[in-house]
Amino acid sequence: MADKIRIGVLGASGYTGADLVRLAYTHPKIEITTLTANSHAGKPMKAVFKHFSHVTLPDLVTIDDADWSSVDAVFCGLPHGTTQAITKSIFQSHPHVKILDMSADFRLKDPAAYKEWYGLDHVATDIQPEAVYGLTELYRDDIAKARLVACPGCYPTAVLLSLVPLAKSGLIDATDIVIDAKSGVSGAGRGLKENTLFCEAGEGLSPYSVGKHRHSAEIEQEIGFAAGLDGLRVNFTPHLIPMSRGELTTSYVRMNQGASAADLRQLLIDAYASDPFVTVLDEGVLPQTQMVRGSNYVAMNVVPDRIPGRAIVISTLDNLVKGSAGQALQNFNIAYGLEETMGLKQLPLFP
Ligand SMILES: NC(=O)C1=CN([C@@H]2O[C@H](COP(=O)(O)OP(=O)(O)OC[C@H]3O[C@@H](n4cnc5c(N)ncnc54)[C@H](OP(=O)(O)O)[C@@H]3O)[C@@H](O)[C@H]2O)C=CC1
Ligand SMILES: CC(=O)N[C@@H](CCC(=O)OP(=O)(O)O)C(=O)O
C-alpha cells in the first residue's frame, strides 16, 4: 500500500463532511485530495468554515468536476436521496475505491422499507447488497472486507450500541422498548431550517417526528436481527435541544424473568471489554453529553427502574463524531487494515 491513502469527501461543505476533514487532516495515513460541494463549489474551505483558516486544503469542486481516479476512498456526507447515483457510479467505475457513506441511503436492507421511510424509490438497489451496516463494534469483520459501508445514523448508533447486546442475549424483551432521544442542532445539518435558527432552537426543547422518525426503521432492523424477530417495533421519540453537538438516548426496557439491571450492565461491560471507544461507566455514574463532546467515545450505563422488572439504559455520543464522521473514519481504518483508533484518539473537549 502507498504511504498515504488518498481520500475524497462528498459534501465537504456540510457538517459531517467538514468534521471528517477536521479528523482526517491529522490522520497519519490520509491525504485529502478532493472535496465536493453544491452551492459552495468553487470556494476554498477556509472561506466556508472559519476553523480551517490555519491549514491548506483542496478547494471545493462540484461532484461533476471531481476526478475519482485520483482517490482511493470516498467519504460521503450528502443528503439522503442525493447519494445513491454518485455512489453507484463510483462503485462500478472505480473498483479500487472504497466508499464510506454517512447518509441513510444504504442502511436499510429492504428497498421497500427505504421507499416507506424516505418516500423515494432507491435507484441503486443492485449495489445495496454490497453495503455493510457500519456500526463498527458489531460488524467489524464485515467492514474489514467491505467496499461500501453504510454508516449508521447518529441516534441509531447510540441506541443500538447500548441495546443490541442486551436484545441478543435475551436479558431484555425486545418487543417492549421505549426510547427517549435528544440531539443537538448540528444533527439537522447546516442548511437553513426555521426550527434550527438560534431564536427558535435556543432556550427550548422540542419533540419532533413523534411516532414516525425514520431512524425507527434502522433501530427496528438491527434490534430485530439481534433478537431474531421479524417485524419488530420500537417506540422512538427524538427531541431537539439547544446545544450545537451531542446526543443522549434514554431507553426504558423490560427485563426477562430473573434478570437485574446489574446483569444488564455486566453484559455490556463484557461485550465491550476490548472496544476502545465504548465506555460502560462505573456503577451509578450517569452518562452526560459533556463526557463525549468532540470525541469518538460513547458513554453508557444501566440503572434499575423503580418499577420492578424494568431498567433504564442511557447512552451518549457526539453526533458528528461517533454519530457520523468519527465512526466513518473508524470504519475506514478497519477497511484498510489500519489501527482502529488511528486519527481518533483525542479526548473529549471540556468544558
Ligand atoms: N448532522 C449529523 O449529525 C448527521 C448527519 N448524517 C447524515 O449525513 C449526511 C450529511 O449531513 P450534514 O453534514 O448534516 O448535512 P449538511 O446539510 O450540513 O451538508 C450537506 C452537504 O451536501 C451538499 N449537497 C446538498 N445537496 C446536494 C446536491 N443535490 N448535490 C451535491 N451536493 C449536495 C452540501 O453542499 P453545499 O453546502 O455546498 O450546498 C453540503 O456539502 C446526511 O445524509 C445526514 O442525514 C448522519 C449522521 C449524523
Ligand atoms: C437534530 C436532527 O434533526 N437530527 C437528524 C438526525 C441526523 C442523522 O443521523 O440523519 P440521517 O439518518 O439522515 O443520516 C434528524 O432527526 O433527522
From TrEMBL:
Protein name: N-acetyl-gamma-glutamyl-phosphate reductase
GO biological process: L-arginine biosynthetic process
HAMAP family tied to this protein: ArgC_type1
Active site, per annotation: 154
Pathway: Amino-acid biosynthesis; L-arginine biosynthesis; N(2)-acetyl-L-ornithine from L-glutamate: step 3/4
Organism domain of life: Bacteria
Summary of the function given for this chain in its UniProt record: Catalyzes the NADPH-dependent reduction of N-acetyl-5-glutamyl phosphate to yield N-acetyl-L-glutamate 5-semialdehyde.
Primary localization: cytoplasm
InterPro entries xrefs: AGPR, AGPR_AS, AGPR_dimerisation_dom, AGPR_type-1, NAD(P)-bd_dom_sf, Semialdehyde_DH_NAD-bd
Record-stated family: Belongs to the NAGSA dehydrogenase family. Type 1 subfamily.
Catalytic activity entry: N-acetyl-L-glutamate 5-semialdehyde + phosphate + NADP(+) = N-acetyl-L-glutamyl 5-phosphate + NADPH + H(+)
Species annotation: Fulvimarina manganoxydans
Location within or outside the cell: Cytoplasm
GO cellular component, one term: cytoplasm
